[in-house]
Amino acid sequence: MAAVVVRGCGGVWRRTWQRGARGPGPAPRGQHAVACNARGGAVPAGKSGPAPWVPVVGLEIHAQISSNSKLFSGSQVQFAAPPNSLVSFFDASLPGTLPVLNRRCVEAAVMTGLALNCSINKKSLFDRKHYFYADLPAGYQITQQRVPIAVNGSLSYSLCIDNKMNQMVTKTVRIKQIQLEQDSGKSLHDDTRSQTLIDLNRAGVGLMEVVMEPDMCCGEEAAAAVRELQLILQTLGSSQAVMAEGQLRVDANVSVHHPGEPYGVRTEVKNINSIRFLAKAVDYEIQRQIEELENGGTILNETRAFDSKLGCTVPMRDKEGKQDYRFMPEPNLPPLILYDAKSLPANMNHQQVVNIDWIHERLPDLPSVKRAKLVEQYGILPEHSFTLLSWLVFLCNYATHCTSPVHAGIGFLLEKNEDGLAEFFENVVKQTQMKPKKVIGWIINDLLSHLKQHSLTVKESPVSSFLLADLLNLLVKKDISSTAAKQVLAELWKGEGKTPLEIVKKKKLGLIQDQKELEQICQAVIDRQENEVMAIKSGNQKVLNKLIGLVQRETQGRSNAVVVRQILEKKLSE
Length: 574
Hints:
The structure is a single chain. By secondary structure, the protein is of the alpha+beta class. The chain is 35% helix and 20% strand. The chain has helices spanning 103-115, 219-236, 275-294, 356-361, 367-378, 382-390, 393-397, 405-416, 421-431, 436-454, 465-476, 482-492, 500-507, 515-528, 530-537, 544-554, 561-572; strands at 2-7, 13-18, 54-64, 119-120, 123-124, 127-130, 140-143, 150-161, 164-182, 186-190, 195-199, 206-212, 248-257, 267-272, 302-307, 312-318, 328-329, 336-337. β10 (186-190) and β11 form a beta hairpin. α11 packs antiparallel against α12, α14 packs across α17 (561-572) and α16 packs across α17 (561-572).
């Protein structure tokens, strides 16, 4: 009998046993049955079976601040610039250079802290964290270990129940702190020449480290939390949070224990740069630890990396001998003092201080507020509001070891983030007579399908909101059928500059308005389908749909299905 891990996202894992399996060893990687319970219910152990497992997941997320210059120098920040072309004397840690704090980075951190319900410390401190890497020229990183800029926040995120988009549950993870710190440079390993090259363009770039408490218990929860954080950062403009460019990197701390026992030894999976990989890495690591413990082994306090090709975590270095970072106050930076409306001195120059209340008043609507407004204003379903803002469908269809090309594609779409989809929808609604509930169907089922097929973003779509609204107006006026409308949309996608009406006229896709012509076509279909006619007259009305489909095929989608049904019913009753 082979062991299979069964998961409940509420926090408890257990092992069940399959009959008829080949041997006592664990199932091959990728063959485990994984089922997530977003309701948060525990998975009980059998009466004679082993005790259940409680997974614990905490995250440390590094978000690159959206700023033109670095945290403590005036060097430009630019992705994919020529190596070592954006390095100041301070970035290279030349003697005598001093840090100058970037105001934009401070404001971005305050904005993010307020959006995550944090308390903003009016006085925060900078520290030196000492460790040696070739891409850290100073031999230390300037961070905020003692008193960070923001503490004690929370982040709410949504999950699907039983993989159903129309059943969602909201969960909350606590935010321990948000701290400002420098990024390091980048090591480029040349295996062919057995050498490592150093690019310091990234050295000194401003980061916000968001530390989440260990309130999650599976990969799906971790992925959903990071996805919501990513949307918030992009909405605020405090970070572009493009994971493919390293602007959002996740470290996952994972452990397992039995209920009522202390937390187990944790491992840290470093530098995960994909939401899909994060979910896989966390679930794999939970699974690996359970197998290791149940086989009599021990879990090492180590740092691991996720190998996306193999779909597993691999050891990097152990942390048993805890590294002494020799934290000390940063002597070249005074305490960071922030103000609010009450504490701001009357004679203070407002341009020289950061006002917490001023930033709070200018916060934009967060994704959760936008979703609520979409539902309230347009009467669409809540799950559709998630699709418009984040393409949450990935989280509902995600399976840890899924190899389905459909699911893989959905995962790509989610991480890609279709910025502007909600605005596109609202623009179409404003310009068409079609009800929003029907417009959303065309957006989700047709527009997004074409975007995925051609690997385009909403902003790159050859079909503008005006053209789609024009097409839907033809449908509302019953000038064309829905089948013909899909043909027109396909023609519009070619980007030849034609309007929907021009395409309808050229392709002769307009509805047949001649009643006699429709009656003749319906009669011809009835004459050719003797068996179906007999079935309908015997009381099987479902067969009538087949005749309607045949008429639609005969007219190439140019007939009104409602009118066709009326004609067929009349003729069959004669």
